[in-house]
VOC family protein
Amino acid sequence: MQFHREPNTFVGQVNLKVQNIERSLTFYQEVIGFKVLNRSDKSAELTADGKTSLLKIEQPEHVLPKQPRTTGLYHFALLLPERSDLAHVVRHFVELNIQIGSADHLVSEALYLSDPDGNGIEIYADRNPNAWEWHNDIVAMTTEALNFPELMTNETGKWSGLPEGTIMGHIHLHVADLARAEQFYIKGLGFKVVNRFGPQALFISTGKYHHHIGLNTWAGVGAPTPAPNSTGLESYAIVFPTDADRQRVIAQLKEIGETVQEENGHLITTDPSGNRIQLQV
């Protein structure tokens, strides 16, 4: 978990819009294993350790179903502390008859599913960073079949919800223009490219993590921004090690023509595809 603390910049809380708060709360507690940290009639903050909010879900007024072929969330990714935790999640999903996708990415092993509104979720465990293969500044990643029989030999107990050490490992976004997104996230926010998937996807990080953010045009080049009251991504947080780092990034964003505004005590910027970002320390 050293890639998600100082001196690195990383993804923090993800904020989602949902159609039915009660339905989503049931899913995120009983299927994913979150605990409720704070709750109101139309929103809830969810936690793994009882202290840190990793996910906020909110039901907007006049909410619309998730709009296809738009920018926004591809998936958010929960990073588990141990490989055995991933095996426990597999057993839990099997017992609930949950349909999932899966992959071995060389750097990590991952499970994929969606919430009741179609918001994508990845749950994964990293391989030992010493085993990641770097070629200059590019990390080797691919998508291969997950070896479930071998993974399940690591099962050492029963699933009991998300372990306390679970964190928000990364976020993966649909964007309209990969070149513009690269300029924003690299020249503006200060991330570095660590992998490219042809002209369609880009993976970026700080501190030589395999990726804190993924960007893709799989919803279509030029995909529109969804309606403000559509279910999907409301915003997500990027966490800087110090306020000086945040101020430096704000200056960089302004240099490339981007804006930063204060909203309800948060500093907000928006990428060229309409994805809202809270700049936190």
